[in-house]
Design brief:
Blueprint lengths: L2 H10 L2 H13 L2 E2 H7 L5 H13 L3 E6 L2 E6 L4 H26 L1 H7 L1
Antiparallel strand pairs: 1-3, 2-3
Helix pairs in contact: 1-5, 3-4, 5-6
Amino acid sequence: MEQNETLAFDALSDRVRRRILAALGEDGELSVGEIAARIDAVGRTTVSSHLRVLRTSGLVRERREGRNRYYSLDTDGAVRDAFVFLQNILRQGITDAAAAAADDPVGAQETG
């Protein structure tokens, strides 16, 4: 696994960070305050800490406007690398399952 993928999966291992990413995926760019309002399990300071992890792992982008910071998904960074990694695993699993079904069509019908 590449370093970007490792950083992405480490960042994704936390439930709050996954919720932050989901909010950004649904609504695009959000301020820290907007994100914190959606994540009621933790406070704004904790959200900021999670955003720092997500930014340094390459999952989100930060844009500063005056004193405000806005975050959005970084679709060209580690998110893409992690997605490609998962896609390859799933593709191989589908290929293996299809090959197994072709080798044992009776067993495939019994389990399907």
